[in-house]
Write a structure and sequence with these properties.
Layout (H helix, E strand, L loop, with lengths): L12 H7 L4 H27 L43 H7 L4 H9 L41 E4 L5 E5 L42 E8 L1 H11 L1 H21 L5 E14 L12 E16 L6 E13 L6 E4 L2 E10 L8 H67 L6 H35 L10 E5 L12 H11 L1 H23 L3 E12 L2 E3 L6 H19 L22 H9 L3 E11 L5 H69 L4 H36 L2 H4 L2 E3 L6 E7 L5 E8 L12
Parallel strand pairs: 3-9
Antiparallel strand pairs: 1-2, 4-5, 5-6, 6-8, 7-11, 8-10, 10-12, 13-14, 14-15
Helix pairs in contact: 5-7, 6-7, 7-8, 7-10, 7-14, 9-13, 10-13, 13-14
Length: 771
């Protein structure tokens, strides 16, 4: 190994002065001794640097690298990096070169006491002036994932625990980080390099599908009126209310009596083998009846009972020889009433259905009000967005005009030789930037206007789509001064969401009452009353062989009895007598029915008792669980409404404060811009500062408009949160017809109501003829 050594005189100046007075022998001996000592220590130092050092358990305090010294006068000022410095190329002989270069004593001691935690450095080939293939510029060879060192920036030492140590001077070594450097992805291939948009003529500034010369003045109340009339959502909610009304009417229809009738003709022939059967020699009886019956029945709205009236009448013709009335006209009238004694006495399925239908109707009413509030809120938000978009467009146009005036001023100053021609380019760039803002603002106007038209117009064929809307409602609205507690109480009393949940809770209570009633046994008291009527044509019996033989035999017995001195037998007539009230036609039968000559009455109790009744118990348990769930939902909704009121009230106050602050900022920006212009004309400022003040003024004006719009929208949102949207906008819902009415106030009469407009669906309104 070849080692270059250099003897460094490290003695102080005072020592050198004293050394000149020593004897020559002593000086030579000391020089040889020092030279021999350095000769012995050089290999040991080289070996220590080449051998890897183990990582210490405790992180030693890292030391800084030697800082570059200022070159003396007369030396080359070209920047040269010392060996093994950051950004320099590591070569095998750097260690020896570093040890042979002169260094200050403190730095030598520091280098000797600092352990080498990185081990021997690998040999890296030296690259001369690497070039970026995409740009052709030389780049600095840095390891992947590392950043180039920053000169002049102070660095701090960090310990292994991440704590910041004592600040170190620039150029000193920094302790080794325990985290590996991040691996960066490869550079992507260039996409359309050096692309520039071709110069093309600008499109026409006209708005798409809108005639800006045909302006339509639109007030907020008129926009709300059109939206309430033409909104499909409100029309759908109104239909839902009508459906709920029909459902309630159907629930009441369960108590409508039911009439039914049955008429038929029947002919039957029945064989008979008995002499009293009246079959005669044919051995059969033929009957022909024509029957008509009517029934009227239904449920009673009181105590859950049911009733039934039955009436039947028949014309019966028979060949039976023993019948004395032929044809006959039997009639019957029966009335039956069933009264529950336990289940269904206080509450039954019919009354449950009616009460639920009533609650559903009130539920749809609340949903209808909620939909109306949502539509009004959406219209208000869209209206104020359109106001902001139009005013912002005006601000952007004014900014372009102002920037163009600045360009003209710069051109005059360039012609006078006061400004450089580059200042015209800067002002022109400002103009083009502001022109881009104008086109963006014009697009925002179209979007806001279309959003408002979508809420107001009934369909896409309306003529108002082609007209430009001009809001005329003033924007200087005063923020409501409502205490928090009052606002919360108003919201809890007026919010339709709570009304819907309370209605659902009432329906759940009706279900609980009904299913609890179903768990009871079924015990009914049944009473029946029947009145019969009968009439017919009397039939004269004919003489037959059996009757004649009976008479002959009776005569012979009477003769023998007379000879024997016995009394004769009494001959009884076999002809059956018929009651006179039964002889007649159909009218006589009805008379007998109405006079109730043949009544029948019956009363009894029917019992139906399921052995376990698990179905009713399960329904009751499910309904009770749903009731607890509704209570939780109600409590949660109240909390949400509380937070909503707090948030909207805070939004109103914050928007009001932002509006005042934005107005002050706009005023300050105007003053600063005016001052900057005066200074520019006086030659004490630059074009850059003037353009910067101009940009700040534009931003301040836009912020003021946005703050005003935010305040108006926050007020609308606060009215929605408290449930007072309908009252504030003078909109009323008629409970009989579910129609909306809007009251228009006359400002000249200090709020006196002058006109009430009925907002019927699909009704045309001419908003140009405002009352």
């Amino acid at each position: 190994m070849r080692i270059k050594l250099r003897v460094i005189d490290v003695m102080p100046s005072t020592t050198r002065n004293v050394r000149k007075s020593w004897p020559q022998m002593l000086r030579s001996k000391l020089s040889y001794a020092l030279f021999g000592l350095l000769l012995l220590c050089a290999p040991l130092c080289v070996a220590a640097q080449e051998s890897p050092q183990p990582t210490p358990t405790t992180a030693p305090t890292p030391t800084a690298s030697p800082s570059p010294q200022s070159p003396p006068a007369g030396t080359n000022t070209q920047q040269q990096l010392p060996p093994n410095a950051a950004g320099s190329t590591v070569r095998p002989g750097n260690e020896a070169q570093q040890s042979t270069q002169p260094q200050p004593v403190p730095q030598q001691q520091q280098q000797q006491t600092t352990p080498n935690t990185q081990g021997p450095r690998p040999t890296t080939p030296q690259i001369q002036n690497p070039t970026n293939p995409t740009s052709g510029l030389p780049t600095t060879a840095n390891p992947v994932g590392t950043a180039a060192p920053q000169q002049g920036a102070p660095t701090t030492t960090t310990t292994g625990t991440g704590q910041t140590g004592v600040p170190l001077a620039p150029g000193q070594n920094v302790g080794t980080s325990p985290i590996a450097p991040a691996q960066l992805p490869p550079e992507p291939p260039p996409v359309a390099p050096n692309y520039q948009a071709p110069a093309r003529p600008l499109p026409a500034p006209d708005r798409v599908g809108v005639n800006v010369n045909d302006q339509l003045p639109l007030a907020l109340n008129d926009a709300i009126a059109l939206a309430l009339k033409n909104s499909n959502d409100i029309d759908e909610s109104r239909i839902n209310v009508q459906i709920a009304e029909f459902n309630l009417l159907a629930a009441h229809g369960v108590y409508d009596p039911l009439f039914s009738s049955e008429d038929y003709y029947e002919r039957s022939t029945t064989p008979t083998s008995s002499s009293i059967g009246g079959g005669g020699t044919r051995g059969a009886v033929t009957q022909v009846d024509e029957t008509g019956s009517a029934r009227l029945g239904g449920f009673s709205p009181i105590a859950g009972g049911s009733y039934q009236f039955d009436f039947s009448s028949t014309r019966l013709t028979t060949t039976n020889q023993n019948v004395r009335l032929n044809p006959q006209f039997p009639t019957a009238f029966t009335f039956t009433y069933t009264q529950p004694l336990l289940r269904g006495l206080r509450f039954d399925a019919n009354r449950h259905g009616i009460e639920v239908a009533k609650k559903n109707l009130s539920l749809t009413d609340a949903q209808f009000r909620q939909q109306v509030i949502d539509v009004i809120t959406q219209v208000e938000q869209a209206y104020w967005d359109l106001v902001f978009a139009l005013r912002n467009l005006q601000v952007q146009i004014d900014a372009v005009k102002q920037a163009r005036l600045q360009v003209e001023s710069n051109q005059r100053l360039v012609q006078q030789g006061v400004l450089a021609p580059i200042d015209i380019v800067a002002a022109t760039t400002q103009v083009t930037t502001f022109e881009q803002n104008v086109y963006t603002a014009q697009q925002a106007v179209t979007r806001a206007e279309n959003t408002l038209k979508t809420l107001m117009l009934p369909n896409r064929l309306d003529a108002m789509w082609g007209r430009a809307l001009t809001p005329i409602t003033p924007v200087n609205l005063e923020a409501p001064r409502v205490p928090l507690e009052q606002a919360v109480q108003s919201a809890l009393a007026s919010r339709p969401e709570l009304a819907q949940l309370r209605t659902n809770a009432d329906i759940n209570q009706l279900d609980v009452r009904y299913f609890r009633d179903l768990t009871k046994p079924q015990i009914n008291l049944v009473g029946t009353y029947t009145s019969d009527g009968l009439a017919g044509r009397l039939v004269v019996p004919s003489q037959n062989s059996s009757t004649s033989s009976t008479l002959v035999l009776t005569d012979r017995v009477n003769q023998l009895s007379a000879l024997a001195g016995l009394p004769p037998l009494t001959v009884t007539s076999t002809t059956t007598t018929v009651a006179p009230q039964l002889i007649g036609g159909y009218t006589q039968s009805l008379r007998n029915l109405l006079e109730q000559r043949y009544p029948t009455a019956r009363i009894g109790v029917t019992i139906s008792l399921p052995l376990r009744n698990r179905t009713a118990e399960a329904n009751l348990g499910r309904t009770l669980a749903q009731g607890h769930q509704l209570k939780d939902q109600l409590a949660q909704t109240e909390q949400i409404i509380e937070a909503d009121v707090r948030n909207t009230l805070q939004a109103v106050r914050s928007a009001e404060a932002r509006r005042a602050a934005a107005a002050a900022a706009r005023s300050s920006a105007e003053q600063q811009y005016a001052s900057e212009q005066r200074q520019f004309r006086a030659g004490t400022t630059t074009v850059f500062l003037v353009l910067q003040r101009q940009t700040e003024l534009l931003s301040a004006r836009a912020n003021e408009l946005q703050a005003q719009t935010d305040l108006n929208k926050a007020i609308s949102d606060f009215q929605r949160a408290t449930g007072n949207t309908l009252e504030v906008n003078h909109v009323a819902v008629r409970t009989d017809t579910r129609q909306l009415e809007q009251r228009t106030l006359d400002a000249d009469t200090l709020g006196t109501e002058t006109t009430t407009r009925t907002l019927a669906p699909n009704a045309a309104t001419n908003i140009n003829n405002r009352p």
